[in-house]
Amino acid sequence: MPTKITKTSWPKHKVETIECRKRDLVIRIADWTRQSMETGEPAYDVEIYDKGIYDWHQSKSFTLLEMPKATAKRAAIQFANDMIRQLLK
To answer: 31, 20 in Cβ contact below 8 A?
Structure first.
């Protein structure tokens, strides 16, 4: 029976933000592929936060206007893997 996830439930709990520490590498992947063209561009967004700093130049969006959904998903996964490999030297 599934339990309700709240701010205080354990081991899973809701968070509003993620506090990045100076040694953290955070990869945030957002699935915006169900978004309509009227509200924005459907895509997978991969955001890189290195040592608590977001860098637009290290992040990338894989839009369904440029490629099919399955290709965009694979490209987002590959990009995230490549960035992890590059930044965790």
So the answer is: no
